[in-house]
Amino acid sequence: MTEDDSALLSGARVATRLPAADLDRARRFYAEKLGLRPVDERPGGLLYRCGGTDFVLFRSTGASPGTFTQMGFETDGDLGAVVAELRRRGVVFEEVDAPGLRTRDGIAEIEGNYPSKGARGERGAWFRDSEGNLLGIGQPVR
After folding, report:
1. How far is Cα 55 from Cα 28, in angstroms, rounded to an integer?
2. Which residues span the domain enclosing 113?
């Protein structure tokens, strides 16, 4: 690999792709529970835009294992209020009890944070969409 090759993808945009066995069911979940509407759709896929970034739900015959966070939303608002509103809309949050990570009423207080975010920690919560994809919501703690 040459020096120029090391920057091969540095200018590329990152685009999340989430599988959906039933796009109509997924569309309803994202609209009714999360308040999101597709900005574009094609046969077999729905494109969503949040905060200047995109993600796609695509028709898939495979199923998501849902054993890890597949996509995360980051909020600068109060995570507790966001979780409460999503619960009011019928979203079910995961309870986690693992070494170094425990939720209380669906929210985990996480020590440290990703180096580039300039925060001292993060609050996090996880839920599954209608297709079994595990999604997270984080709030940097400054």
Report:
1. 16
2. 4-141
d(CA 98, CA 116): 25
- The reported pTM is 0.89
Q: Structurally, how many domains does the chain consist of?
A: 1
Q: Give the C-alpha separation, 62 to 124, whole Å.
A: 28
Place of tokens 């993060």: 122
Tens digits of per-residue pLDDT, 67-114?
A: 899 999 999 889 999 999 999 999 999 999 988 889 999 999 988 766
Rounded Cα–Cα distance for residues 108 and 46 (Å): 31
- What CATH number corresponds to the domain at position 62? 3.10.180.10
pLDDT at 131 over 70: yes
